[in-house]
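Final report, Chapter 2: Outcomes

The project's central promise was a pipeline that accepts a single protein chain and returns its three-dimensional structure in a standardized token representation, suitable for archiving and comparison. That pipeline is now operational. To close this chapter, we reproduce one record exactly as it appears in the project archive, with the input sequence first and the structure output second.
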Amino acid sequence: MSNLYKHALKQEQGLRQDLEKFENGEDVSVGLQGQISVGLTSLKRTIDDYDSLAKREMILVKQEKALVNVCKLRDNYNELKNQFDRLKQREANKMTQNNRAELLGRRHNTSTPEYPFQHGVTREQHALREHDFINETDSKLDEFIAHGREVLHNLYDQNNTLKNAQRKMLDAANTLGLSRNVIQYIERRSTQDKWIFIGGVIITLFSMWAI
């Protein structure tokens, strides 16, 4: 359970570093946003797994400590998620302003037509459709990346499960080998005791006959 808590702290640290890059403007690419989105999903799943293990802890002191850690992790997760939503909204507003400024620049650079609002509406609709297409593409990329991270996490869990199963099988084999040695020793000891008993009976009968 402690390894899972350390894994959650490591995920949280990575998310903070990525959000810092995003907030400072070092990297505002779609790839980084998808990475942050997947990281948040993975962190939430890790917290849920850790919470489930904490509730099954038999030792009360360890259980209380683990539940406190779960509360801290959830608070940090909500903080990171709110920060990411705020930064995404900021970038969306910037993109909208840039598209609007570009659209206005094109209007000023072109001659005024007979119906001045006719072409403006068409270009604005085109810009909105382009913006919607970019947002939809970002969402699909986030889903693909999240699915890939989930598959990787499942493989990691399966690897740990196989390792635990292998360890239990080795322990069982060692225990079985020890049990066989003990059984063989008991069988040899029983045979020796049987012959000693038979010999004692013969000696006793012979002594009684002699007397």
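Archive annotation: The chain is about 90% helix and 0% strand.
This record, like all others produced under the grant, will remain available to the consortium after the project formally closes.
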